[in-house]
Amino acid sequence: MKYREMTVDDLQYVVEKNIEYYNTVEECCWTYEKAYKRIHQVLTMEDSMCMIQTDQDDNITGYLMGYFKEYDDIRGYFLEEIVIFVGHQGKGYGTDFLKHLEKVVNENNASIIELNSVNDDRHINFYSNLGFYPVSNFVMMGKFME
After folding, report:
1. In angstroms, rounded to a whole number, what is the distance separating the alpha carbons of residues 83 and 95?
2. Three-state SS string across the chain, please?
3. CB of 32 within 8 A of CB of 55?
4. Number of Cβ within a 10 Å radius of residue 25
5. What domains are defined for the chain?
6. Nearest Cα residue to 68 out of 56, 79, 77
7. Interval 111-130: pLDDT, tens
8. pTM recorded for the entire structure
């Protein structure tokens, strides 16, 4: 696998494949405009680091997006999303991508990768197998507005 930084030139392809994945595999209802805005927001924010994964023939197999965060005592990386596209899953590409991300995050002097995950067996097993674990000192909270 090969890895490179995502650019604005990648957006159209990434957005289309993102919609294909989420609307077929995850049964979501993404539109092009919403998916574009979400990915563009992270790609263009300060300290973002978004990457593209390609196979040996330079076909894009997936992407990840996130950003570095500063704390009082450490620097971290928040993984906003990792997606391996339809037809490329179950081949170890996601595992390879996260291992590459760990190397790059470490090279950028960050000492933690944080992420939010869907709370189901598939996602928990995937991240657990790579050494990720639920944290007990934070809880995700939300409030839907009426």
Report:
1. 11
2. CEEEECCHHHHHHHHHHHHHHHHHCCCCCCCHHHHHHHHHHHHHCCCECCEEEECCCCCEEEEEEEEEEECCCCEEEEEEEEEECCCCCCCCHHHHHHHHHHHHHHHCCCCEEEECCCCCHHHHHHHHCCCCCCCCCCCCCCCCCC
3. no
4. 12
5. 2-128 (3.40.630.30)
6. 77
7. 999 999 888 888 899 999 99
8. 0.91
